Input
Amino acid sequence: MKGLLCIFAFLAVALPAGAEPLTLASKYDVVGTNPDGSKYRGTADVNVISNSTFTIKWAIGTSTIEGFGMRMNNSLAATYEINGEPGLVIYRLEGNGFDGLWAIRGHNGTGTEHLTPR
Output
């Protein structure tokens, strides 16, 4: 948790006072790879709640994962919880979507994820 707080403290200081409004789609197709190499697909619903923050809800198989995020320029960061363990995903705008890298606190390896607007 201390690491997550440091990341968000850095992002909060790095954001200009007049951050540009989010221009995110409300629904994305999700394609990802788990740290063990297995693949997954699903959707993500995004709800912009301020000019710099949003909520995100992933539907992957039968699982629903909810998170909170913020934007800095063309990057997004979001926190979430899986089975009581916090995680973090960082996305970068790439063409018509976002490429992401995610991890769960205390677990080895990272996963990848791509969001494509519907």
Observations:
- Residues 2-117 form a domain with the Lipocalin fold (CATH 2.40.128.120).
- Helices lie at 2-14.
